[in-house]
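Example complex used in Figure S2.
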Amino acid sequence: MNIVDFSLHEQAILLFAALILFTSFALLAQQRMLASIHVFAWQGALVAGATVLVAIVSKQNHLYFSAALTFGLKAVFLPWMLHRLVNQLGIQHHVETVVRPALVLLGAAALVVFSYYVALPIEKLSLLSTRNTIAVSMAVVLIGMLMMVARRQAVSQVLGFMSMENGLFFAAVVSTHGMPMVVELGIAFDVLVAAVLFGIFFLQIRDSIESLDVDRLNRLSETDQAEQTRE
Amino acid sequence: MSGWLLALIQLMIFVLGAPFLVIWIKQVKCRLQNRRAPSFAQPYRDLGKLFRKQVVLAENASPLFRMAPYIVFAATVLAALTVPLIAIKLPTAAIADMLVLLGFLAIGRFFMTLAGMDVGTAFGGMGSSREVSLSSLAEPALLMVIFTLAMTAQSTNLSSVMQYLLDVGVVLRPSLLFALLGLMLVAVAETGRVPVDNPATHLELTMVHEAMILEYSGRHLALMEWAAYIKLMIFGVLIVNIFFPWGLATDATLPALAIGFAAMVFKLLVAGVVLAVAETRLAKMRVFRVPEYLNLAFLLALLGALSHIILEVGV
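Predicted assembly (546 residues):
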């Protein structure tokens, strides 16, 4: 189905999908702490906007509730909480160095192509007008995972995890017009609890290794000391 | 016959209007920065003065150094000929191919970089090396934008792309949004504006374009400067006429052409304001940050192509 045959609302869904994908890339490339939290908030807002549009097109009223929940949680509450945590830890102006940023971005582009290839047979089974966006939501999930692999800073890893969740939610909305309400509420609370736990976890690892660089968790402090004395 | 006449008039508007676009941007920029702006005739006066001045050549300048300004100017004017300005379906549409346009600009750049190295001063060589390394990064992004457009309109001909986009009407295409953003970033880099290069300074460490033409004087310098103005106009017209094609004249009647002219002037003035605001807001980047910037442009263009394939064609 070509974009010219779609109604304006359906075209807008595609536009939102593309913008969500773009925020995923922006999240991956953004090295400043506060800016990446803002990008994450924008991604949440875009997912909520796309959900509203799907609700209008498919006339599924319960999707309005999901959209409101997503907006409140992903675009307002979680960014606010991360903001507060970052202020508490005093790393607002932290700039993370990404190893080979160009290579990571090209990898993300390759993931988009891969998820398009994987999603093709699924799209052939679907009759919804939003089926083209399944590949995009899969790509958002995979890019979130890539972000968790490529970043060493704990806060950015959490952002990658949360954007994976955004991708999953978007996939549910566009491929089946949303999950049952119970499941959705359950996931929302899961994310909330996860966010709170992450907050405690940040403070803990900072207390024990005096940094949020999770690579340092790989080293055993005693062997390090032993090596140092040997040198 | 009237078609050719029209193409010629369009080219004259293009070549003579290019300095006006430059001074318009400068005027807006001066207003924004609370400075007194030069008058609208200033770039024309500058060009006139340079054409009257005597040419001073370095002793070891080769014939290539003297030929280069004419080649650069001619290549840029030919490139301008391929871009529909106020009307499409002109006889020149036969060569109005986007790859041809890139080729003309590449010829101009090739001779300009050669001329920069010809006299053997340190600045010329530095400018040339920077220009080549930046353009080798900008060109893939520009090509990706062209591929996105070609996939959408099934043609690399500028005239038919604009015709197609006019016929289809308003469609929210994510691919074109990304292509537009990518093209805007590339245009800034290719025309040497802030934040990539600053056309207004001769600060030694940062200049790219100015370093290459440092040895030129008199009419040679005038031609080089004029070619740079036309290049800015080419990119401005590409952006406004491809992504906002409304108002372009599709037939050669007088009212249609008048509307086309008025629409073109309006769109370019708005584009000039956008560029001036962007230049006022941004500071010049360090040269070593420019590859990152062009990487972003390439990524945007690539996302445009991918979102066309994934979202717009579908299964």
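The mean pLDDT of chain A is 85. The interface with chain B takes residues 1-4, 8, 11-12, 14-15, 17-19, 21-22, 25, 29, 101-102, 105, 109, 112-113, 116, 120, 123-124, 131-133, 135-136 of chain A (CB under 8 Å).
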